[in-house]
Amino acid sequence: MQTLLAIEKNWDACAANAGGPRTIDLDLLLYDDAMIESPEIIVPHPRMHERRFVLAPAAEIAANVVHPKLRRTIRELLTQLPSPAADEPNLRIFLSPTDIQATILDLHRNGHRIGLVPTMGALHEGHISLVHNAREQADIVAATIFVNPTQFGPHEDFRKYPRTLDADLRALASAGCNLVFIPTANDIYPPGFSTYVEPPVVSQPLEGICRPGHFRGVATIVLKLFQLLPAHIACFGQKDYQQLQVIKRMVADLAVPIEIIACPTVREPDGLAMSSRNRYLSPSERQQALALSRALAQAEQRVRFGEQNAATIVTAMQATLHEAGITQIEYVALADPETLAPQTTVDRPTIALIAARVGTTRLIDNRLLLKAT
Ligand code: AMP
Questions:
Q1: Atom of ligand 1 nearest to the CA of 243
Q2: How confident is the model at residue 247 (pLDDT cuts 50, 70, 90)?
Q3: Residue by residue, what is the 3-state secondary structure of the chain?
Q4: Using a 6 Å cutoff on CB, does residue 120 contact ligand 1?
């Protein structure tokens, strides 16, 4: 104790006013397994386990040291601290790639576990469920809002894709998201940008046929976001089932150090899968659109009652769509849940997928038919 005070004094560490901050503050936090309770000094420091500014630097030099009273390592004490966002739901907004990258790397160094939620904005409860999922497994949640031009085809809705930034920021803040990165296309694809990810084989059927180039754009932006926001986990929705498989495969193939968390599809009470594009639907199209989830639910029921023939199930699904007045069916398919290779017999887990246009709006939905036991 005397030694520490002497060092402080020597370094001219006087507080400007009594009890105020000092230019240097030395504390004895732990001393082996010793416990000291004297009028002069208490060891372990009585509040060290409550203070992030103490635990974070301590974790950098002595993460595995065990607190003699609490019998927890410094790393465990740090990860058990309540998230700063729990008491102050402040959303920090980042526009610059270098700033967000530096901040995330800093959070890493301070022992935080970071969850990432990439989005294109126009947020709904499906997106917010990803934030909640990330919150459960990480103490810092970072979202991105970027309508990625390279994943849209020349005749697709890039220009008119809904943009609702103010509402998005409010929704992210109230869901407890800590950081949001909102780059411009120029930030992500500056002049001279010419490196793209060649997506894995699972990108080729279904969406790969209907939307050539789509998954090349998706894989490229997702990998770039993983570089700019190197999180521990990233949450993606099962709503975009093939996208999820493409990303999982890319992460495995390229050894990207991030865990991909698949989150269930959030639906409206009547079954329609939530989508930013649902807002394009007129009231009558909104009714027609219900046929997608209905066809999938009926397919699941058929399988539960013993039907195994994929062609029979697909024909029935197509009939349900037609009956609702949906004529522009892009695909109705039963496939292997991991590779998306077509499946002819539903005698093992099978994913059923639909893409169809309702009016001019392209909708997709899917459902797992036979769950692994
Ligand atoms: P998007 O903004 O459409 O690119 O979607 C961003 C993320 O939200 C993706 O991981 C989507 O799969 C996910 N997502 C979109 N709609 C839903 C939904 N209804 N339920 C769960 N996740 C969703």
A1: 12
A2: very high
A3: CHHHHHHHHHCCCCCCCCCCCCCCCCCCCCCCCCCEECCCCEECCCCHHHCHHHHHHHHHHHCCCECCCCCCEHHHHHHHCCCHHHHCCCCEEECCHHHHHHHHHHHHHCCCCEEEEEECCCCCHHHHHHHHHHHHHCCEEEEEECCCHHHCCCCCCCCCCCCCHHHHHHHHHHCCCCEEECCCHHHHCCCCCCCCCCCCHHHCCCHHHHCCCHHHHHHHHHHHHHHHCCCCEEEEEHHHHHHHHHHHHHHHHCCCCCEEEEECCCECCCCCECCHHHHHCCHHHHHHHHHHHHHHHHHHHHHHCCCCEHHHHHHHHHHHHHHCCCCEEEEEEEECCCCCCECCECCCCCEEEEEEEECCEEEEEEEECCCCC
A4: yes
